[in-house]
Amino acid sequence: MPDAASRPSPAADGDLVARAAQGEERAIGTLYDRYGTVLYAVAYRIVGQRADAEEVVLEAFAQAWRDAPRFEAGRGSVAGWLTMIARSRALDLVRARGRRDRITASAAADRPETPPAMGEFRPDPGDALDHDERRRQVRQALETLSPPQRQAIELAYFEGLSQSEIAERLEEPLGTVKTRVRLGMQKLRECLRPFYFERGT
Amino acid sequence: MTGPAQDSPQDLAAAYALGALPADEARRFEAFLASSPEAQREVQEYREVAALLALAGPESAAPSSLPADLRDRVLARVAAQKARTLPAAARATAGRPSSAVWVALAASLLLAVGLGAGLVSARGKLAAVETELTARNSALAQATQKLSEREATLHSILEPGVQMFQLTSSGDPEPGIQLFWNRQRHEAIVHGFRLKPVPAGKAYQLWFIKDGAPVPSITFKPEADGDAQVQGIPVPEGGSLSAAAITVEPEGGSAQPTSPILMVGTLKQS
User: Fold this and answer.
1) How far is CA A168 from CA A162, A173, A175, B228, in A?
2) I want to staple B228 with a disulfide (CB 3.0 to 4.6 A). Which of A34, A187, B146, B222 is the partner?
3) In this structure, is residue A189 part of a structural domain?
């Protein structure tokens, strides 16, 4: 990419985590610029409303700050690590909300889902383009799965269900669900390998 | 039912990375993972796939809809957390005024005064006003931060499902620790009091006793008055937590306790 070459080379994600581990808050700011949209996307998909999705993003970066000293670059990309944190926090929130809602039968009316007045968000333009391209690729890759494969993977990832819970929900044999998850993930891996986020190292 | 013994590690890697294994099965797989670089690579790849799934969200979550102030709020929360977990270090930076509002206010003041007649003397006054403003700003920022921290703490303690446990010890005065365990969030807040200062290079470390073995948690140092408070402590999930304990360890924390248990409390599973 000629564009990337003309820019000063940015700090590697792994270095940013290391700097956060040493107490540098700005490093979290840069990680937010790179992956804030990704974390927000997964949070929103799981919790389904803006205010909660924002809270998840806040909690996820706060946890990343706390956990930074324990981040192991060899175990995967920073983006993978961050999204897993956001996913867990979002699922926690949904579970907590489920309990709360059962208690207060009339859940408070959620904010209407009209787009709120937003300021201009300025991520690194290069990153934004990358994410848009990745988003397209992910959608295309998901299209290649059979609907049951896609459903099993989405139930696991976005609803936090284990394979046996998925089997129960769909009233399918556990073995069938396991096969769907495995084959679906293999197919996604083949399609998406060129589009992985930056490595942690 | 298909038992886990019949699943090959390759089969499990995808489900594990996706978070679709139940806790006990995930733990067994992790034990295997430690000994298999091949499975580690496999999991690593599937984690990348899972991370990309994050982008499969709806259009309404596209980048342009991120609130403009979210970045500042992220940084503010990190800063507040830093102030809580590193009391000594925080004091050095907490006073730094960072609010854009104050900068704008100062700028508008500059403009208003600049338009006046007595420009030279006004500049002197302006400098004084600005100094005063900076001082008040930093005092205000500190007070606001303290207040919001306390509110947040109160809020998290009052959440449903939060239970308090006491970690005790003998001594005069008697130190103590209250551990507020939020089972829904798998988080805990620790509030310590009458804690003795730790020697240089050392810190208190919290341990969760899970399935009979100590799991290292956060380290912290008490304030000069013997108080300590740490929030957002991840509580290990899965397995059975029987107790929490405190030891004195090197500042960076230890993987296994290296000193006798100072305080301990039972965590009853309700």
Assistant:
1) 10, 8, 12, 46
2) B222
3) yes
